[in-house]
Write a structure and sequence with these properties.
GO terms for molecular function: acyltransferase activity. InterPro entries: HGSNAT_cat (IPR012429). Residues 20-174 form the Heparan-alpha-glucosaminide N-acetyltransferase catalytic domain. It is a single chain. The chain is mainly alpha-helical. Helices cover 60% and strands 3% of the residues. The chain has 13 helices and four strands. The strands form two sheets. A two-stranded antiparallel sheet has the order 1-4. A two-stranded antiparallel ribbon has the order 2-3. Helix 1 packs across helix 9. The longest helix is centred in the last third of the chain and has 25 residues, at 350-374.
């Protein structure tokens, strides 16, 4: 990692550096703050429905967060790699992908470092794979080819999941344990899957294909934003593309249901459509109309997104290693002790206590990140 000092004292149209839209950093920051919120409730047994994932088919606001981030990765690629002829880009892309994958593997290993059952898939490994694939595709193809690849990935994935028989189970199906993706994960990864499910993984191998399509949709959005069209045209096209994507999502949902764990093609269209509209709104308000004052807290999250995601996952694990003795002779982790001491007694509803714990965690990180932002500290992978 390296430290950069590139944040200007006052925001102009663009934020950090010369090729980063303030609206994009804001959108990224909102997404990362939401990710930290839903990943760190005070009590996993008491979370409000919108802050949890859909059990299987369907979606909640929480299901939008990860695909929004991958969409933003795609937009960022179109800016960061616009000088396609620059030497050494492929090496840098591969290096960054390996670091992201390694960070994800480290989180899954910590603190036991049991390589025999460590979960190999995960959020950071999927980000790494999507970043690698989308970056190389962006460098080597045209916008038309990228659009075609999105169609191929989504239609191809639909055909695989709904028509190809599942070995040892029979006809194609979309059930959690017997779909083609789950079978492939068990076959290739064995015990290295999500511990909660054990026999399938929400960031599995096959569903990475449509996740790449999510990243490519972000690349197309970034290409539009870099074009010579007027600001009004860019905003309108983003919004129209979002509407068309949503229409396609709900048509496809009739025979390939929206499902985050399977990352179905209809889910890609739904989340990309909403991401396009959210980006259009941020771009129009922030970069075109100039409403920027409110963006600073979110930009603080956005410019250090991977750093805060990694550390917000690591620190609770470290706290759980610290054991605090209880009156009954048992002991609990420091994270649980803090929650039981400073939140549970002050809220009648366990759901409110859990939400307050999550919001406090986000607030603590905001203070840390805002200080870093003010001191112009950006940690880039």
């Amino acid at each position: 990692m390296k430290q950069l000092s590139l944040i200007p004292k006052k925001h102009g149209l663009k934020s950090v550096g010369t090729n980063r839209l303030l609206s994009l950093d804001t959108f990224r920051g909102i997404t990362v703050a939401a990710m930290i919120l839903v990943n760190n409730p005070g009590d996993w047994g008491h979370i409000y429905a919108p802050l949890g994932h859909a059990k299987w088919h369907g979606w909640t606001p929480t299901d939008l967060i990860f695909p929004f981030f991958l969409f933003i990765v795609g937009v960022s690629i179109s800016y960061a790699l616009q000088n396609k002829e620059k030497t050494g880009l492929v090496g840098k892309i591969v290096k960054r992908s390996l670091i992201l994958f390694g960070l994800g593997l480290f989180l899954n290993l910590f603190p036991k470092f049991d390589f025999s059952t460590v979960r190999i898939p995960g959020v950071l490994p999927r980000i790494a794979l999507v970043y690698l694939a989308c970056s190389l595709i962006y460098l080597k193809t045209t916008t038309r080819t990228q659009s075609g690849l999105i169609a191929i990935l989504l239609v191809g994935y639909w055909l695989l999941m709904t028509f190809v028989p599942v070995p040892a189970f029979g006809p194609a199906n979309l059930d959690p344990e017997t779909n083609l993706g789950a079978w492939l994960d068990r076959t290739l990864l064995g015990e290295h899957l999500w511990k909660t499910a054990k026999v399938w993984d929400p960031e599995g191998l096959l569903s990475t294909l449509p996740a790449i399509a999510t990243g490519l949709s972000g690349i197309l959005a970034g290409t539009l934003l870099k074009s010579n069209r007027s600001e009004a045209e860019k905003t309108a096209w983003l919004f129209v593309a979002g509407c068309l994507s949503l229409l396609g999502a709900y048509i496809w949902n009739g025979f390939f249901p929206i499902n985050k764990s399977l990352w179905t093609s209809s889910f890609v269209l739904l989340t990309s459509g909403l991401a396009l509209q959210a980006l259009a709104l941020c771009y129009w308000l922030i970069d075109v109309q100039g409403y920027r004052r409110w963006t600073r807290p979110f930009v603080a999250f956005g410019v250090n997104a991977i750093t805060v995601f990694f550390l917000s996952g690591l620190i609770p694990r470290i706290l759980n290693l610290i054991r605090v003795a209880q009156p009954d002779g048992t002991d609990i982790g420091a994270k649980e002790w803090l929650y039981q001491t400073f939140f549970v007694p002050y809220f009648e509803s366990p759901y409110n206590a859990s939400l307050a714990g999550a919001l406090t965690f986000v607030l603590i990180w905001f203070i840390i990140l805002y200080v870093m932002y003010q001191k112009k500290i950006i940690i880039k992978v």
